[in-house]
Amino acid sequence: MKNKIKSIYILALTTVFFGCFELDQIDPINVSEATFWQTVDDLNKGVIATYDALQSRDMYGQNLHILYSGLSDEGTNEHPFEFNALVRFTLSDTNAFGGPHWASNYTLISRAYQVLQNEPNFNKPEVAGQAEFMIALGYFNLVNFFGENVAYVDKVQVPADRPFSAENGQIYTLMESMLISAIDKLPLSWPVNEYGKVTKGAAQALLAKHYFQLGRYADAEILLKAIIDSGQYSLLPNFADNFRETGEVNPEAIFVVNFIENGPTNETDNNRRHQIFSVSEQGGAFGDIQCTNMIFNAFVREETASGSKDSRMDQTIIYPGSELTYYGLTGDVWAEAAPNPELLTGFYKYSEQEHVENNGNGTALEEDGGTDYIVLRYADILLMYAEALNAGGNTAQAVTYVDQVRARSGRPALLTAYPGAAGSQTAFRDQLEQERILELSGENWRYFDLRRWGKYNNAQQVEDANFATFTDGQDEVAGIPQLELDTNANLKPNQAN
Amino acid sequence: MLLVLFIGVQSIAGAQTTVTGKVVDGSGQPLPGAAVIEKSTTNGTSTDFDGAFSLEVSNANATLVVSYIGFVTKEVNVAGKTTVNVTLEEDSNQLDEVVVVGYGRQKKSSLTGAVSIIDVGETEKSQYTNITDRLQGRAAGVNVTANGEPGSVGDIRIRGSAFFNNNTPLYVVDGVILSGVPTIGPNDVENIQILKDASSAAIYGAGGANGVILITTKKGKKGRLRVNANLTTGFQQIAEGLDVMDAAGWSRIVRAAFDSPNASGLQPADAFNLPGVDTDWQKAVFRTASLQDANINVSGGGDRHTILFGVNYTYQDGTVPGPKFDRTGIRLNSSFDIIKDRLTVSENLSINRTRASGSVDEDNPATAGVGVGAAIDMLPVIPVYDPTRLSGYGHGDFNNLSFTANPIGYADLYKNTDEGTNIFGNLNVDFNIIDGLDYHFGVGIEKTHGYTKAYNPRNQIRRTTIVGSALAVGHSESMNTYLEHRLTYEKTFGKHAFSLMGAYNELEETAFSSGVSFDQTLDAFRAGLFELASASPITTGVPTVGSDRSTIVTQSLISRFTYDYDNRYLLKASVRRDSYSIFLDNRSDIFPSLDLGWNLHNESFFNVKNISQLKLRAAYGEVGNNDADSNAYIGVTGINQGLGGPNYNLGPNGISASGATRASALGNPSLTWARVKQYNFGVDLEMFDGRLAFEGNYYFGEVEDLLADITIPASAGVGFENTIKLNAVTNEQNGWEAALTYRKLKGDFTYTLSANAFATRTSVKSVPAGFTGIVGNSLTTVGSPRARLFLWEYQGLYTQAEIDALPPGFLVDEFEPMVGDAKYRDVNGDNIIDQNDRVAYGNTLPDVNFGLNFSANYKNWDFTVFLSGLFGRDVFNGTLQGLHGDIASNYPADYNPYIDGVGTYPRPQTDGNHGNYRASTLYVEDGSFVKLRNLQIGYIVPWKSVDNLRVFVSGQNLFTWTNFNGVEPEFEGGFFTAGEASLGYPVVRSISAGLNISL
């Protein structure tokens, strides 16, 4: 009997355990995309994510600088690694640079379209305008690198999408319409705690850049004039203050990518440019990109012509004899370890000097990289306006704007130093090249300048020996990443594949 | 009537008609629980725990039928005696062996699918510290790729890999479905059955597609108390290093690489000058490591209970500095008959604690390649210790190019520990409701707890990379709960035997984790204190904190019907319906099976001398596989936000601004299980009274709706090489397996020779649109075997005459060839060697895998030798290609590139220019190998005070026969890259001695 009672207890207990668990399980951590976009706050977060894309190592956090400097005649290196194939235009289709550049710009575009497609529910044109700018910026980086027949993406993609190669002109039209719409929607400025967001001026500047690359100087001239006339921007008294963290609103910066020193590394919000760029490999710097003698020579020309050393020289490059130190070491020390006795200079701009010194050991680390990177700078706008005016035949008027930039760095007036500079449209254009090198070297624009001026070809080896292996008709663009061609049958190879 | 009365009176009156006796096995050990039945009656009893019985029989001439599982049933005529002692012989043909088949048991003779029954006794002779590795080579169709890293468990594959990611079989321990690989001590295992074909595994439905490993742990036995102990101690070392260059040899080649025309990079003026250093890195890193293993268990049982408890301990040191592993486990298994023969309650409980330290973190670029790889890569011109460096350890720089982290420095500076506890217990209630109808209830809980800590001081042990001080502490827990209700009805009507089983089970798998880390943002600790409390972050250092939780639920309805006519015609049918919380739109599915079997030897017409068994089997089954189980919420595309998310900083001082965007892992709500539909045909043959046994299977079928990771174009904005899971690929699969055993069990010299061989073929039948099948250096195309190599076809070195004969503009990887450059076949004839000239090449799936075990006994001596390996596999030796082509790593000693007109390999290059050292058929090798896995000699010490005392010496992985020119020919490879060898932690050689003792 007792056994029966025991068994009844035991068997009754088993029925307690019948079916305990639910099949419907909700992710306790992640919100689903389908239910996310509910409030204006969500939309604002969406647009912040587009800025975050710019901080990535594959973008302004590192690679963009390697690509634009390395592929122009201002940057080179003596690595035995793939960096060297990059600067000599001998990258294979499966190289390590093209894929990330392609992917990170489409990431930017995707994030922007997520905002753009949800914005109509909230009617926030100033948010839509930022997203439109980001789409144009992504394509600006893509078409100037891979050529204009990249994948045509004009909406948020689903996994099954295999976009087609863009037809000629298709992306240019898209960029233009995005930026015209953005200019209309964006404010002239943001409150100080939102400083860094895209402004009307930034959209105008990017569209002007875009028109410049297409040779549409007259269209650009209107935009550049609008920026200058907006009263929003001015040159900083001190050229060097553009390239270090001042903690203040910079009236010369039209669009910046913000970086933070010692931020959480899992958010990659520091800039690693300073470690990549140096004369040689020491002190935590990699020496992956150093500068060619082209920049050094330009400063020597300036010194010869004007009779005094350009104060921008030491702020732009480190070289034997520079008055500044780089991670606490003089230019001579850096040159000693350089692999090539013919090439003893490196970029000083954005070198994170003060933060490296704060380390107390003169060693560059990733987390030092807190200096904001200025994508669009007012000095560039002034020089571009001069170039546009000159292209339209207003050379005399153009000189004023060049002199504004020169005067800030204490340079004598243009026609004092170079009396013949305004003698002809061509002479002025050639002088502008010199002025842009002095002011803008190491800021990625040389690559675009060469392309715009028809100098992006094998003949440029006069300035940079790397161009000796530039194959005309092929290396004007980088090959579409092989993996992308392997995964998307609708995408066609380009001339470089 | 009178007679009966008379007997009755007699039986009451006296002891003459009561038969007593003892049942023992061949070695005299008592057999408790043996059945003793008077023939042709229902009168019977069973032996007590001393093997003794007492039975009243109907007459003095009665015949006793004595039976015990695993022994030949014996009939004994009482013949007037009152004491009858019976010795049972072990059943060598084991036809009536009962095997676990999932949700029940079945006689081996009535099996109709492909089930391997593992000889656990033989596996216990191998010294691997986990049960999975011990299965290597033990069963046809079961392959284990072990590696020598302390504490790691090998990859086990049943009938090869059918899926892209998850090819691990389902483990069921004591009836409980586990969500991973068991951590139990291998000596706790009583028996193992492996369900190989889809029909056998169909009872496990959506979890069964990779086969099922059913493990039963040791239980106490009725009878007196027993003590068993096994002790082993030994040492291990890396069996094969790779002969590499000394300083002079390395610098000669690397100088030539820089001197060659079109070389990338400039050779610094003072580069590669030998600083009087010539380090033998492998000698500095590889070491002989100790190995210890001990386990002891105590067991016994009374009339209505059995109990076993045990403890085990394993310690394994690393054969490179750093890794260490130990495991301590305890076990308690017991069972109680609440109502004798009616209601049994039993439990199994094991607790294991593992500690692994110094494990190699392959994901961290700062430490990648640490250990074996680093010992091979490191340059001889770099010293182990270098006081001029930041951390005092030698490393590469601009002049000696290596980027490899100093492995000695890594072991000294990186303090990693990984501790885990696994508690696994289950409770079973078995109730016999009425004759033939049984109810079973089971509940199982598996709880794991993990603690990881990784700390490193600020250091530089690698070229250019200075790593800040970091500390990461993480806790993880998982809790799996398993429930099962089962009804079984068995009935025999004359020659018809039926059984019907119905069950319901649920499995809930919950995982939690949390962690805190300072990523390179710490100052040092006070000496020896590596906890968060004593950490001092640098001024702006902020810790990363995180936590995670997920739950997966599976619900299943199961039924099985078997029918056996006269032990001649066999039928089995099962159906299972699974529902799974991971899947959203296609949550439930049904997995059926149907088998037929024919015991030919039981037919009256079958009368072939010496054939004791001949069975033909045919089976069809469907099973599923979830290849997405790492992510509980894979159906949903999430939003990436919060800590570590797409956040930004605004304002001149960088005010945090929170961002949110689509997560890069895109969800797929329509995911469902891949489904294996497989036919299995088999034959079982036993001859010469079971001395010779053969088992063969041939199988074929399709694997439908494979969950494949399909690359999403980066234009979708979710990154480069990002993938999504789709039920997108269908494969065809076929294979065969054969096992042959010969036993000589009589006489002083006995032996068993068993051999198995198997091969599996997979080819792709359909792929989704846009899928190119090119992965790594391999190609998988519709209609071809999977994972063929996809390479340039190497044709030797260019001579001047050949270059002169080339058409103008002929380019190899963008360069005009030079004398001594690699010559590749221009497949498409466009005078340019590029990606379009790759050709599918070779066969990366072995023609045959095999295992061969010979164990012999002569008087007190025993001897075991075990070999396994594979033949007919083409392997791409990417390690060798990497070493040859990389100026930043050392070169193999036999590398002889073309320098100054001499050499057999292509001209050395700093980069891959001229196409030299690109992936080509130059690096395709024969991957066949035979390994001497185990060699053991034992001796039973004749000592009366113990039941058994055996001492042994054992050697593991003593020798490998292979032509493969690398460290380790044994590797599995990826699904799409099955033939691409990489350098991992090689299998280690061990030599040990030990003793087994039973009291």
Commentary on this structure:
- The complex is a heterodimer of chains A (497) and B (999).
- Chain A has a two-stranded antiparallel sheet. Chain A has a two-stranded antiparallel ribbon with strand order 2-8.
- Chain A contains 21 helices and eight strands.
- Chain A is globular, with a radius of gyration of 26 Å.
- In chain A, β5 and β6 form a beta hairpin.
- Helix content of chain A is 47%, strand content 4%.
- The model of chain A has no long low-confidence stretch (mean pLDDT 91).
- Chain A has 497 residues and is mostly helical.
- With 999 residues, chain B is mainly beta.
- Chain B has a domain of 86 residues: Sandwich (Immunoglobulin-like).
- Chain B is built from nine helices and 55 strands.
- Chain B has a 22-stranded antiparallel β-barrel. Chain B has a five-stranded mixed sheet with strand order 10-15-16-13-14. In chain B, strands 3-2-5-6 form a four-stranded antiparallel sheet, with no helix packed on it.
- The longest helix of chain B has 13 residues.
- The chains are: A mainly alpha (497), B mainly beta (999).
- The interface between A and B is large, with 116 and 111 residues.
